[in-house]
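_Backbone structure tokens_
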Amino acid sequence: MGRMFQVLGFWTLAMALMFLAGELYIPAILFFVQTALFIILGLLNLTEKTYMYLFAAYMFIAFCGMVWYATFMMDVPAAHAPTH
């Protein structure tokens, strides 16, 4: 199971490098941090149950973050903005 966290680290590294190539520095930093976290967790050799709990917590935080960003931080397009 620790190997799967290392695989997640590989894919987040790939995403971070693509963000970096596109000059999107904030998401690149976010994905570099996730890469380091996944690689470190993958090397700890924890139990499978612990890895499942960690992944569930990661997914919960990620989904809450996406919903929060989409709800409160994204701009409303002009075509859909309410008119007064």
Observations:
- DSSP finds three helices and no strands in the chain.
